[in-house]
Every structure is written in structure tokens, then in C-alpha cells.
Amino acid sequence: MEKPDNNKLLYYINKWAHLSKEDESVIKSAFEPVFIKKKQDLLVSGQVCDFLYFITQGCLRSFYIDSKGVEHVYQIRMDNNWIGDIDSYFTRLPSKYNIEALEDSNLLRIPVGRLEQLLVEIPGLERYFRILFQKAYINALNRLNATMWETAMDRYNEMLKEHPEIFQRVSLVHLASYLGITPESLSRIRKQK
Prior knowledge:
alpha+beta, Jelly Rolls, four-stranded antiparallel sheet, globular, Crp/Fnr family transcriptional regulator, RmlC-like_jellyroll, cNMP-bd_dom_sf
């Protein structure tokens, strides 16, 4: 697997904020490259999430295990996306979530203290994260609304439209959990298509 590419991170930051070459250099040096093998844990429930991760290549999921031992997939993130437990990361409280690699993955990580420094030093980066967090909040609301008011078929179709590659990279068991349905229901939906 290739080495994590800081240029991908800079490309996505520059989509929403203008960075000088000096800013880019500071950002590059602040992120540490990490490689994680498939099925390896990045975070275990009960740990504090010390890092925010940018996925340069790979696929990960965050999930919660309820009192009956049932897994509930909260996030599935692939190339050029962020993953972490934002609540634990900023509050420094233990996470309720686990994060696991679904593929061998290259990541760039940054600790909370260093990110806070960069947000003060580089206004463009603060703008980027403000927009990123706004989009994440809106996506979370949309997902909650979809779970409450849309049919499983509608949620499946939306996922297929937004992320068609996810069906080649993620098991149907994890996708069903993410969609809030059983694997059997997901199989029936796929057969109807």
C-alpha cells in the first residue's frame, strides 16, 4: 500500500479555504502518517480518542456495541474522508465507539492540541474545519431524518447514488447495520433492483 499522501489532504482543504505555501508546509508537518491493517482497531470503546484521522486510502467503520452485544454501524468512511470520535476528541472523555479498518488503510492523524494550535495559527484551516463540521452536522441530521421517515429502499437508493463503490468495499452485514436494517432485508432490497 502506498504511503499516505499529504497532498490529498491539502487538495481538500484548499477546496474550501485558501492556504499559502507556508501554511501548507506547516499543515504537512503537523500530520503524522499511519498505516493500519484490515480488521485492526483504531479506537476501542472506553478509550479517549486522541487523534482525528484523514483517510488518504482505505475504508474504516465506527460502531457501537449495545448492551445485548449487537453492533450498530455509525459511520463508514473511505478515501479522502475524516474519521474519529469528535465528541471524545474534543471533550477528552472515553469514547462509546470502536473504529475498525475494513481494508488496509493509509491515514494522516493529528492530536487535538496540535489541531487547536493550527486553528489559531492558520485562519484558512479554521474556515475549512468550520465548513467541514457544518457539513457533518447537516449530514447527521439528514441521516437521522432518513432513518425516521424514509423507507429502507429509499435509504439504500440514496447510498447507491452517493457512494456506489461502497458496495464493492464493505460487507453487506456492515451496510445493513449502517442503513438500520437486517442483512436479510438488504438482500431482498438488492434483489428488487
